[in-house]
Amino acid sequence: MEEKRVNRDEILNYLMGLRHVTAPVAIAENNLRRNQDLYDKAKKKWWLPIGICVVFTIGYMSMVGDGDKAIMTGNQFGGVGGLLVFGGLTVLFLYLKFSKQGKLKRSVDGSTDILMQEKSNPEYQNGLNGFPAKFYHYSEIYRLWKLISEGRAETLKEAYNLLETQHFYEDQLSMQEEMRNLQQDIAFTGKVTAVASVVSAINTTRIANKR
Predict the structure, then answer these.
(1) Enclosing domain of residue 69
(2) Are 160 and 148 within one domain?
(3) Residues 87-133: tens digit of each pLDDT
(4) Closest CA to 56 of 14, 28, 76, 86
(5) Which of 127, 157, 159 is CA-nearest to residue 21?
């Protein structure tokens, strides 16, 4: 956008237009992110109950296989019952798990298609003309609009520079937060290790004294 003889209201109207153009893409990205998160969580669910059922199924299978095959003992009858119960639960849990995963995967694929369609929209593509690609996102455009509307920047160039500075400090704060979390984790791990060492030393001493 040419900034010669462009006043503040014209810049705000221009950015507001870009907000309307990029909003559908931002919505599609949020939907995809939410569906992907649900799908990733679903892939991790049900494995514990499935594993438990598999263990019991194998155990009851061994019970059925024990003893005289010609005569079914009470223990084997119990094994058959347990095999049917836990085998059935295993199949049920697997069905529920992969059925849910399949549904969520289709949602992810559908959200991906919608996002691609929104990004290929000619109006969205035209908005990139003369606008920095790194700022071409609804959230970034909103922040630029906010800087201009609050009078913190008079031109788009000033707004770009100020937003760059904000990103820099945000990255620094994020890195500092990560470092604090890492240091806390190291300190906690050190305490746990120290306690474990003391307990191990006490146990070693007790064993030595018993000898």
Answers:
(1) 8-154
(2) no
(3) 888 899 899 889 999 999 999 999 999 999 999 999 999 999 989 99
(4) 86
(5) 127
